[in-house]
Protein backbone atom coordinates (compact mmCIF):
# COMPACT_ATOMS: atom_id res chain seq x y z
CA UNK A 1 0.00 0.00 0.00
CA UNK A 2 1.51 3.34 -1.07
CA UNK A 3 1.46 6.07 1.56
CA UNK A 4 1.24 9.81 0.82
CA UNK A 5 2.08 12.47 3.38
CA UNK A 6 -0.39 15.32 3.43
CA UNK A 7 0.74 18.80 2.45
CA UNK A 8 0.41 19.90 6.08
CA UNK A 9 2.61 17.02 7.25
CA UNK A 10 5.24 17.85 4.65
CA UNK A 11 5.22 21.47 5.78
CA UNK A 12 5.67 20.45 9.42
CA UNK A 13 8.63 18.24 8.50
CA UNK A 14 10.19 21.08 6.56
CA UNK A 15 9.75 23.52 9.41
CA UNK A 16 11.23 21.04 11.86
CA UNK A 17 14.34 20.50 9.72
CA UNK A 18 17.54 22.18 10.92
CA UNK A 19 18.41 25.57 9.42
CA UNK A 20 20.62 25.34 6.37
CA UNK A 21 23.80 27.34 5.92
CA UNK A 22 23.23 29.96 3.24
CA UNK A 23 25.95 30.69 0.70
CA UNK A 24 26.27 33.05 -2.24
CA UNK A 25 29.26 33.30 -4.60
CA UNK A 26 30.39 35.70 -7.32
CA UNK A 27 33.23 35.27 -9.79
CA UNK A 28 35.55 38.06 -10.86
CA UNK A 29 37.61 38.30 -14.04
CA UNK A 30 41.35 37.67 -13.86
CA UNK A 31 43.56 40.69 -14.51
CA UNK A 32 40.81 43.29 -14.02
CA UNK A 33 42.84 45.70 -11.90
CA UNK A 34 41.11 49.05 -11.45
CA UNK A 35 42.01 51.65 -14.06
CA UNK A 36 43.24 54.08 -11.41
CA UNK A 37 45.24 51.50 -9.45
CA UNK A 38 48.87 52.58 -9.03
CA UNK A 39 50.20 49.73 -6.84
CA UNK A 40 52.02 46.56 -7.87
CA UNK A 41 49.89 44.24 -9.99
CA UNK A 42 50.43 41.15 -7.87
CA UNK A 43 48.37 38.03 -8.54
CA UNK A 44 47.34 37.79 -4.89
CA UNK A 45 45.71 41.23 -5.14
CA UNK A 46 43.51 40.12 -8.04
CA UNK A 47 40.26 38.54 -6.79
CA UNK A 48 38.82 35.72 -8.93
CA UNK A 49 35.92 34.68 -6.68
CA UNK A 50 34.25 35.76 -3.46
CA UNK A 51 31.66 33.94 -1.35
CA UNK A 52 29.61 34.73 1.74
CA UNK A 53 28.09 31.99 3.90
CA UNK A 54 26.02 32.32 7.05
CA UNK A 55 25.32 29.45 9.45
CA UNK A 56 22.27 30.41 11.51
CA UNK A 57 22.85 27.55 13.97
CA UNK A 58 26.41 28.54 14.87
CA UNK A 59 25.77 32.26 14.17
CA UNK A 60 28.89 32.35 12.06
CA UNK A 61 29.85 34.00 8.78
CA UNK A 62 32.40 32.37 6.49
CA UNK A 63 34.01 34.60 3.88
CA UNK A 64 35.83 32.76 1.12
CA UNK A 65 37.98 34.22 -1.65
CA UNK A 66 40.28 33.02 -4.39
CA UNK A 67 42.96 35.02 -6.15
CA UNK A 68 44.86 34.80 -9.42
CA UNK A 69 47.93 33.56 -7.56
CA UNK A 70 49.11 32.25 -4.21
CA UNK A 71 48.92 34.64 -1.26
CA UNK A 72 52.50 35.53 -0.33
CA UNK A 73 53.31 36.94 3.09
CA UNK A 74 55.86 39.75 3.04
CA UNK A 75 54.72 41.16 -0.30
CA UNK A 76 52.74 44.43 -0.52
CA UNK A 77 49.05 44.41 0.16
CA UNK A 78 46.26 43.33 2.49
CA UNK A 79 42.53 42.64 2.29
CA UNK A 80 39.58 44.72 3.44
CA UNK A 81 36.02 43.45 3.74
CA UNK A 82 33.37 46.13 4.01
CA UNK A 83 30.24 44.99 5.86
CA UNK A 84 26.83 46.64 5.69
CA UNK A 85 24.89 45.45 8.74
CA UNK A 86 21.98 47.74 7.93
CA UNK A 87 23.12 51.32 8.35
CA UNK A 88 25.44 51.48 5.32
CA UNK A 89 26.68 54.94 6.32
CA UNK A 90 30.10 54.81 4.62
CA UNK A 91 30.13 55.34 0.83
CA UNK A 92 33.66 56.40 -0.12
CA UNK A 93 34.14 54.97 -3.63
CA UNK A 94 31.74 56.88 -5.86
CA UNK A 95 34.56 58.73 -7.61
CA UNK A 96 36.08 55.47 -8.82
CA UNK A 97 32.78 54.02 -10.06
CA UNK A 98 32.00 51.94 -6.97
CA UNK A 99 29.27 54.03 -5.37
CA UNK A 100 27.20 50.99 -4.40
CA UNK A 101 29.96 49.61 -2.18
CA UNK A 102 28.55 50.73 1.16
CA UNK A 103 29.47 49.59 4.65
CA UNK A 104 29.37 50.47 8.33
CA UNK A 105 32.08 48.11 9.55
CA UNK A 106 35.36 46.85 8.10
CA UNK A 107 37.37 43.66 8.52
CA UNK A 108 41.09 43.87 7.72
CA UNK A 109 43.13 40.73 7.01
CA UNK A 110 46.89 40.67 6.45
CA UNK A 111 48.78 38.26 4.23
CA UNK A 112 50.42 36.72 7.31
CA UNK A 113 47.03 35.42 8.50
CA UNK A 114 46.27 38.05 11.14
CA UNK A 115 43.20 40.25 11.12
CA UNK A 116 40.91 42.58 13.03
CA UNK A 117 37.48 44.19 13.09
CA UNK A 118 37.99 47.77 14.17
CA UNK A 119 40.20 47.46 17.24
CA UNK A 120 39.22 43.84 17.93
CA UNK A 121 41.76 41.21 16.79
CA UNK A 122 40.39 38.13 15.05
CA UNK A 123 41.32 34.75 16.49
CA UNK A 124 44.12 33.31 14.34
CA UNK A 125 42.13 30.08 14.09
CA UNK A 126 39.44 31.98 12.18
CA UNK A 127 41.76 32.87 9.28
CA UNK A 128 43.11 30.25 6.89
CA UNK A 129 45.38 30.76 3.88
CA UNK A 130 46.05 27.88 1.50
CA UNK A 131 47.74 28.81 -1.75
CA UNK A 132 45.43 31.26 -3.52
CA UNK A 133 42.51 30.64 -1.13
CA UNK A 134 41.66 32.89 1.82
CA UNK A 135 38.96 31.85 4.30
CA UNK A 136 37.84 34.07 7.17
CA UNK A 137 35.30 33.05 9.82
CA UNK A 138 33.55 35.85 11.70
CA UNK A 139 31.15 35.29 14.63
CA UNK A 140 27.93 37.27 14.38
CA UNK A 141 28.67 38.72 17.83
CA UNK A 142 31.52 40.75 16.30
CA UNK A 143 29.20 42.29 13.70
CA UNK A 144 26.19 43.62 15.63
CA UNK A 145 23.23 44.51 13.44
CA UNK A 146 22.25 48.08 12.67
CA UNK A 147 19.00 47.00 11.03
CA UNK A 148 19.52 43.88 8.91
CA UNK A 149 18.96 40.23 9.70
CA UNK A 150 22.34 38.44 9.43
CA UNK A 151 21.37 36.74 6.16
CA UNK A 152 20.98 40.22 4.61
CA UNK A 153 24.35 41.63 5.68
CA UNK A 154 26.13 42.96 2.59
CA UNK A 155 29.85 42.24 2.05
CA UNK A 156 32.44 43.49 -0.41
CA UNK A 157 36.12 42.52 -0.65
CA UNK A 158 38.79 44.88 -1.88
CA UNK A 159 42.52 44.09 -1.79
CA UNK A 160 44.75 47.11 -1.46
CA UNK A 161 48.45 47.90 -1.51
CA UNK A 162 48.27 50.89 0.83
CA UNK A 163 46.23 53.97 1.74
CA UNK A 164 44.01 55.91 -0.64
CA UNK A 165 41.70 54.88 -3.46
CA UNK A 166 44.59 54.55 -5.92
CA UNK A 167 45.94 51.70 -3.77
CA UNK A 168 42.78 49.56 -4.21
CA UNK A 169 43.43 46.89 -6.82
CA UNK A 170 40.04 45.23 -7.25
CA UNK A 171 36.48 44.95 -5.92
CA UNK A 172 34.38 41.81 -5.55
CA UNK A 173 31.58 42.08 -6.31
CA UNK A 174 31.93 45.08 -8.63
CA UNK A 175 29.97 48.12 -7.46
CA UNK A 176 27.72 46.05 -5.16
CA UNK A 177 27.62 44.05 -1.97
CA UNK A 178 27.08 40.32 -1.58
CA UNK A 179 24.81 38.67 0.99
CA UNK A 180 23.95 35.08 1.80
CA UNK A 181 20.19 35.61 1.67
CA UNK A 182 19.57 34.60 -1.95
CA UNK A 183 21.24 31.19 -1.73
CA UNK A 184 18.63 28.79 -0.29
CA UNK A 185 15.06 29.20 0.99
CA UNK A 186 14.44 29.82 4.66
CA UNK A 187 12.66 26.97 6.55
CA UNK A 188 9.36 28.83 6.28
CA UNK A 189 9.84 29.10 2.52
CA UNK A 190 10.60 25.38 2.32
CA UNK A 191 7.32 24.84 4.14
CA UNK A 192 5.43 26.88 1.54
CA UNK A 193 7.17 24.98 -1.27
CA UNK A 194 6.15 21.70 0.33
CA UNK A 195 2.55 22.88 0.70
CA UNK A 196 2.54 23.84 -2.97
CA UNK A 197 4.01 20.49 -3.97
CA UNK A 198 1.46 18.65 -1.84
CA UNK A 199 -1.45 20.59 -3.31
CA UNK A 200 -0.15 20.05 -6.84
CA UNK A 201 0.22 16.33 -6.17
CA UNK A 202 -3.29 16.11 -4.75
CA UNK A 203 -4.73 17.94 -7.76
CA UNK A 204 -2.90 15.61 -10.15
CA UNK A 205 -4.18 12.51 -8.36
CA UNK A 206 -7.71 13.95 -8.37
CA UNK A 207 -7.53 14.60 -12.12
CA UNK A 208 -6.25 11.09 -12.79
CA UNK A 209 -9.13 9.66 -10.76
CA UNK A 210 -11.68 11.69 -12.73
CA UNK A 211 -10.13 10.53 -16.00
CA UNK A 212 -10.28 6.88 -14.86
CA UNK A 213 -13.95 7.20 -13.87
CA UNK A 214 -14.80 8.84 -17.16
CA UNK A 215 -13.18 6.05 -19.15
CA UNK A 216 -14.62 3.25 -16.97
3D architecture notes:
The chain has 216 residues and is α+β, with helices and mostly antiparallel strands. A hairpin with a 2-residue loop joins strand 8 (127-130) and strand 9. The strands form 2 sheets. The chain has a 5-stranded antiparallel beta sheet, with no helix packed on it. Strands 7-6-5-4-10 form a 5-stranded antiparallel beta sheet, with no helix packed on it. It is built from 2 helices and 10 strands, in the order H-E-E-E-E-E-E-E-E-E-E-H. The two termini are 23 Å apart. 18% of the residues lie in helices and 27% in strands. Helix 1 (7-16) runs antiparallel to helix 2.
List the keywords.
216 residues, alpha+beta, five-stranded antiparallel sheet, 18% helix, 27% strand, globular, disordered C terminus
Radius of gyration: 23 Å
Main pleated sheet: 5 strands, antiparallel
Portion of residues in beta strands equals: 25-35%
Oligomeric form of this entry? single chain
Question: What topology does this entry show?
Answer:
Layout: H1 7-16, E1 22-27, E2 47-55, E3 60-67, E4 78-84, E5 105-110, E6 115-117, E7 120-121, E8 127-130, E9 133-139, E10 154-160, H2 187-215
Antiparallel strand pairs: 1-2, 2-3, 3-9, 4-5, 4-10, 5-6, 6-7, 8-9
Helix pairs in contact: 1-2
Question: Quick summary of this structure?
Answer:
The protein has about 220 residues and is an alpha+beta fold. It contains two helices and ten strands.
Amino acid sequence: MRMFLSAAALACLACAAPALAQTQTVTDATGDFLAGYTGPKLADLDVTSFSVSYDATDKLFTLGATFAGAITAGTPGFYVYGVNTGKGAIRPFGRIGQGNVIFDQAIVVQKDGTGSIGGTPLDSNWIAIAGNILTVKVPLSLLPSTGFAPQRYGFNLWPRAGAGNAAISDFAPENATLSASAAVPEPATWGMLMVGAGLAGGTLRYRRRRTTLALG
